[in-house]
Amino acid sequence: MQTFISFEEARRIELATVAEQPVEHVSLDEAQGRTLAAAIDSRDTIPPFDNSAMDGYAVRAADVQDVPVTLPVAGQVPAGMSPERAVAPGSCVQIMTGAPVPEGADAVVPVEWTEQAGGDRVRVRRAPETGQYVRPAGQDVQVGERVIDVGQVVTPPVVGMLATLGYAEVAVRVPPRIAVIATGDELVEVDRALGPGQIRNSNGHALAAQVRSAGAEALPPLLARDDKADIRRIIEEALSADALLFSGGVSVGEYDLVKQVLDAMGMELYFWKVRQRPGKPLAFGVLQGKPVFGLPGNPVSSAMCFEQHVRPALATMLGRQRVLRPRHPAILDVPSPKVENLHHFARGVAAFADDGRLHVRDTGPQASNLYSSVVRANCIIHLPDGLAEAEPGLKVEIEWLDWAGIG
Ligand code: AMP
Ligand code: MG
Questions:
Q1: Which of 43, 47, 133, 219 is spaced 20 to 30 Å from 380 by Cα?
Q2: 298 CB under 6 A from ligand 1?
Q3: Taking phi first (over 0 means left), then psi (-120 to 50 degrees means alpha), and beta for anything else, what does residue 263 get?
Q4: Using an 8 Å Cβ cutoff, are 342 and 277 in contact?
Q5: Which domains occur in the chain, in start order?
Q6: Does the CA dihedral 304-310-315-321 come out positive or negative?
Q7: Ligand 1 nearest-atom number relative to CA 186
Q8: Which residues surround ligand 2, an ion (CB under 5 A)?
Q9: pLDDT value at 407 more than 70
Q10: 367 lines ligand 1 (CB under 6 A)
C-alpha cells in the first residue's frame, strides 16, 4: 500500500487497474451516448453516384459556352430514379437536386439561369463551368475510409454518419454498473425531516448523477450506518456491480470503518491518501476483482474526487478514446489559497476577456464542505503540487465543467 502519493501517480494506478467492459450490439437509435467498441470504416462511397446539387438541366458544358443558347429537353431525372438515357450532344435533361447525373452530362445549369423556350426546349442564359453543380461520387467519403475512431462517443453527428453508411446496429461497450454507497450515522434520506445532528445524504445522489453523466449505470444508491456489520452487508450486496464507490468512512476518524471492513474482507489496498486538495484521504483498491474507490465524505471532496479520479476510470472502462478532459491555459485574476505540496482542484468561474484570453477566478472560500462552490463553478482550476502561491496574473490550467454536454 502506498500513501501520500501524487495526484498523477494515483490516477496512473487507477487507470492501469481498471479493465475494459465487454462489447454488445445495439440498434442505431439506442446508440446515442454509448462508446463505440470498433472503428467505423466506410463500406460505401458517399455520395454513391454523381448527382446534381441543383434543380436544373444536366448538360454537356461544351454545348452551353456561347450563351444564350436553346437546347431540346430530352427527358427528366427525378431524385431516386436512374437516368433512362445519356445526354446526347446538343441536348439536355431536366434534373432534380440529388438525382443521378446522366452519362454524357458534365455540368448542371440551375433552373434560375434558364427560361422555358416552348416545345420542350429551354433557353440557357449563363454558361456553367465543367463539373459545376455536379456532386461527384465519393466527394464526402471513400470506400474503406476510416470515418469514426474506436472509443468515440456516439454523438448526434455520429448517428447521422452511421445512418449514412448503413449501420443499423453498432458495437458499443456495456456501461459499467456502479454501486454508490454512502456511509454515516448522521445521514438521512432526502425526503425525511432532519433530526438533531442529522444531514441529508447528498453525496449518494450526486455521485449517482455523476456516474450517469460519465456514461455508466448507477445502481440504486445504498446507505450504510457506521456499523461494521451493516457496512459488510451492504458491501456484499454491492459486489454485484462492476465497481464500488464509497462516500465517507475513509479518513482517520474513530467511526471511519469502511476501510477496516474492506480490509477484513480481503481488499487489496493500492493507495490511501493523495497529495491533493480537496480529497486527501482518497483510498483505492480492488476487492474480489472489483475496483473500489473510497471517496472522502465532504461533499466537495466527493465531487472533485469523482471528476478527477472516478470519471477517467469509468471512461477507461468504457474504452473511450478521450479519458481526460482537455485543460486550457487561463490567467488567474484573484489570489487563491495554496498549500505548496498539494495539487489543488479549485472551483472556478472562467470566461474570455477583452484581451481574447481566458481569465478565471475561484468561487470564493474553498473549504471542502462548501458545496455551493461546486454548483457555481464552470471549471476546475488546477494548481499543481510544488506551487507555493497562486497570485493574480498566474498562468494556470482549467478544465471546463460542462455538465450538460459531457460525453
Ligand atoms: P467522513 O469522510 O465520513 O469523515 O465525512 C466527512 C464529512 O462529510 C462529514 O461532515 C460528513 O457528515 C459529511 N458527509 C459524509 N457523507 C455524506 C453524504 N453522503 N452526504 C453529505 N455529507 C456527507
Ligand atoms: Mg462518516
A1: 219
A2: yes
A3: alpha
A4: yes
A5: 2-21+175-317 (3.40.980.10), 23-46+140-173 (3.90.105.10), 51-135 (2.170.190.11), 328-399 (2.40.340.10)
A6: positive
A7: 12
A8: 184, 248, 297
A9: no
A10: no
Confidence (pLDDT) at 65 = 96
Atom 14 (ligand 1) nearest CA: 297
- Ligand 1 atom closest to residue 296's alpha carbon, by position in its atom list: 2
C-beta of 247 in contact with ligand 1 (< 6 A): yes
Distance CA 397, CA 376 (A): 18
In tens, the pLDDT along 359-405 reads: 999 999 999 999 999 999 999 999 999 999 999 999 999 999 988 76
What is the predicted pLDDT for the residue at 340? 98
**Nearest residue by C-alpha to atom 6 in ligand 1:** 297
Residue 104 CA, ligand 1 centroid: distance in Å = 76
Q: In the prediction, which pLDDT does 254 show?
A: 67
Q: Is 221 in the pocket of ligand 1 (CB under 6 A)?
A: no
**For the purposes of burial, counting CB atoms within 10 Å of the CB of 274, is it exposed (0-12), middle (13-18) or buried (19 or more)?**
buried
pTM above 0.90, yes or no: yes
